[in-house]
Model the fold of this input.
Amino acid sequence: MQDIESEIRDIIAEIVEKDPAEITPEAKFFEDLGMDSMMALEILAAIEKKYKISIPEEKLMQLTTLKDTVAVARGYLNQNK
Done:
């Protein structure tokens, strides 16, 4: 099984239409990758669907880098175990 970081990187790459290699753990979604708020919602929905978790929309403001997004997703995955 791929690790969660590379799976989320692939989701983000698909939505922002960038090469996964461009999505480094520290790359800022809005400033570096040109993401907009609709893309952010799409990413949130895709992560929720893939991992069968629910992340409140208030958390959207914390999803600013791959590293932050993985940390939030892991937190909710661990709650569901």
About this structure: The radius of gyration is 12 Å.
